[in-house]
Amino acid sequence: MPEAIVSQGPIRRMFNMLNLPVGDNFAVAGLVIYLLFVLTAIFAPVLAPYDPTEILYSADYDLASDFLPGQEGHILGTTSLGRDIFSQIVYGARSALLVGLTAAFMVAFIGTIVGLMSGYFGGWVDTVLMRLADVAFGIPFLPFVIVISAFLEPSIWNTVIAMALVLWRDTARVIRSQVLTLRSRGYVEAARVSGSSDFKIITRHIAPNIVPLSLLYGSIAIGWAILTEASISFLGFGDPDSISWGFMLQDAFASQALSRQAYHWFIPPGLAIILVVSAGFFISRGYENLLFPKLGR
Q1: How far does Cα 203 stand from its chain's mean position?
Q2: Distance (Å, rounded) from C-alpha 51 to C-alpha 59?
Q3: CA 127 to CA 132: how far, in whole Å?
Q4: Pick from 136, 135, 103, 110: which is nearest to 232 by CA?
Q5: Quick check: helix, strand or coil at residue 69?
Q6: N or C: which end of the chain has fewer CB within 10 A?
């Protein structure tokens, strides 16, 4: 076998396991949107003309407050405190993606592990884990995140942890039901009879078949995480040292930007939130078509 093909084997296997829904137009659009925002977050220091927290001054050494778009070189104008709005939008992508991707990974990881253990082993393991899921279902999501963020030190990581402690429940329940069907398949029974360990059966025969389902709920969790972070920041419980789109909306609301018709201030962060959240649901739609093709008929 040629060396090139051998070297590409692990990469091909990884992409096959991820099973990206590139055949769905909405999913491709979602992936493109994510790629654009990821590039924006990575190259934020290059794209942003100013520090997002820097208070700027005009050429006449006056506070550069409430500049209109294009005035004195500010693409989207400035805030009431003289901060560049475009720079805040660019750096806000970092906070949004950090919260969204981290929370989605934790939700998918915890939910997948719980669902695997519960569905495969059954018995008292299933009972304990599913009762924990019932408790998680009984916790109101947004109030719980607000309480955790309020009592702990304001931080993006506290918000992520609070979301991960609650949102894993849906992923675990669905994956458990899928594992219950997989563990009775013929190839799993054959592996068990041949002497394969539980760990080997789970990692080699069951886990690869539920990865698309984990990614489906992970992509949904990205949208929920970004919306939650924006809500927390808008309510004043976010990290004051971090520039996020929710912080921008809260700042615009406190400065009465709507009554002053400063649409250039609060519409861009709102559109950014809508785009990123919609991208997550577009990707989840693609995974739904892969997992449940009959739904598209």
Answers
A1: 25
A2: 18
A3: 9
A4: 103
A5: coil
A6: C
CA distances 216 to 26, 189, 240, Å, are: 14, 27, 32
* 10-63 pLDDT per residue, tens: 545 544 555 556 667 778 888 889 899 999 999 989 998 888 888 888 777 778
Positive or negative: CA dihedral 145, 141, 275, 262? negative
The model's pTM: 0.77
Rounded to 5°, the CA angle 154-98-214 comes to 115
Cα separation, 235 vs 249, whole angstroms: 10
Phi and psi angles of residue 63, each rounded to the nearest 5 degrees, phi first: -60, 125
The rounded radius of gyration (Å) of the Cα atoms in the chain is 23
CA–CA distance from 79 to each of 6, 68, 104, 167, 263 (Å)? 55, 9, 32, 35, 11
Q: Tokens 């969204």 belong to which residue?
A: 100
- Taking CA atoms, 273 is separated from 15, 159, 230, 251, 276, in Å, by 28, 17, 8, 16, 5
The answer to whether the CB of 64 falls within 8 A of the CB of 82 is: yes
Q: How far apart are CA 220 and CA 192, in angstroms?
A: 34
What is the rounded CA–CA span in Å between residue 248 and residue 62?
23
- C-alpha distances (whole Å) from 209 to each of 10, 14, 18, 116 are 17, 13, 10, 11
- Sequence length of the chain is 297
Tell me the per-residue pLDDT of 224-270, one tens digit each, with 9 for 90 and over: 888 888 888 888 777 777 788 888 888 888 888 888 888 888 889 98
- Could you give the count of Cα atoms lying within 13 Å of 116 in the half-sphere of its Cβ? 22
Between helix 85-121 and helix 25-42 the angle, nearest 10°, is 120
